[in-house]
Amino acid sequence: MNTALWVARRYFFSGKEKKFINILSIIAMLGVAVGTAALVIVLSAFNGLEALVRKLDQRFDPEIKVVAAQGKTFEVSPAFLKPLQQIQGVQVITEVIEDNALLRYREAQVVVRVKGVSDNFQQQHRIDSAMVAGEPLLKRGNISYAIVGAGIQQALGVALHNQLDVMQFWYPKNKKNIAINPADAFNKKSILASGVFQISSQYDEKYVFVPLEFAEMLMQHGQKRTALEIKTTENADIQEVKETIKQQLGDKFKVLDSDEQHASFLRVMKIERLFTFAALLFILVIASFNIFVSLSMLAIEKRRDVGIFYALGADEAFIQRVFIAEGGLIAGIGTAVGLSGGLALCLLQQHFGFVSMGMTSAVVEAYPVQVHWVDFVVTGLCVILFTIAATYSPAKRAAHAKIIL
């Protein structure tokens, strides 16, 4: 064993008497352990939340979405779609008309997001697993049906396949002249509800799916569409397909993958993660200051030992290594305990879900966590960096301290 490390270990694991300096070293070690565990747990929680958000978005959003670079809508024709359908990796292209409208049911009303989709939307199978009532039916013969979010269904009390009470959508007409009767300024169309989906509140309380022809007549868009939603083949490279579509359409369109469709939200999550990480690093800085104090007091207490080492032929470098090794033991044990404890708590949460989200959800009940090895590496490197900074000054002072024999 390295002599300096052996001496440092003897100082740290002093078995005869637990002096104040030993207690202070233990407190510094516990500070490092708590800070390290907190970093691991919080980073894993952010990983879990991000993964959950991506999972929910993928159940609702398409793999690739095409929207106009400027304006709200764009013209779509068979000639426009044909080159896109021939791109290798493209399986389904769903035409979409989406806008806000007023939904009235019996005596209640609410503003919703109407999403008209072409008949091949069912081939994308995005909300099939999210159905909690009824069936994912949009058309049967010449009859149109709507699939409503669970939040809307609860707010309005919508009954499925109720022939007596139908849902009625109101949408402003594209007219410059103001009608004398306000009701005449709106297009109105009625439809039956066939099913209810539940994904998350941001979708359940907002969206209603209807056939494309229904939305086309309600909003008077003609051949204009607000988006194209594309599903790729099973083994296709989504990024490669996306780039091919961008080259095909040019600068007049935006071609967005799943992350780009929620770029602002994901950016906010990353910023929150960064600031939380910085705040918890401050705890490690405080713990490192405790190591600084502990080593400074140890240097004062062990001045006689330092004198003996010099008398035996030790040099300043050896004395510095002893105190740096002492700080390394404090930080190393604290880091190991923190990483192990943080990992254990995350694994327990993954398997048993002790911490709840605090709400009833069909999607997830326990707080999601995901452990990434990169978080362990980053946390360990940060502890090493702060430890080196905290131990250098006390070690240097100990080597230059006045010798007492």
Describe the structure in your own words.
The chain is of the alpha+beta class and 405 residues long. It folds into two domains: 3-58 and 265-399, no CATH class; 63-257, no CATH class. It is built from eleven helices and 13 strands. The chain has helices at 3-12, 20-60, 78-85, 150-156, 201-204, 212-219, 238-249, 263-301, 303-311, 316-352, 373-399; strands at 64-68, 74-75, 90-105, 108-117, 131-134, 139-140, 143-149, 167-172, 186-197, 207-211, 224-225, 227-232, 253-257. It has a six-stranded mixed beta barrel with strand order 3-4-10-7-9-8. Strands 2-11 form a two-stranded antiparallel ribbon. A hairpin with a 2-residue loop joins strand 6 (139-140) and strand 7. Helix 8 (263-301) packs across helix 10 and helix 10 runs antiparallel to helix 11. The chain starts with a helix and ends in a 6-residue tail after the last helix. The model has no long low-confidence stretch (mean pLDDT 83).
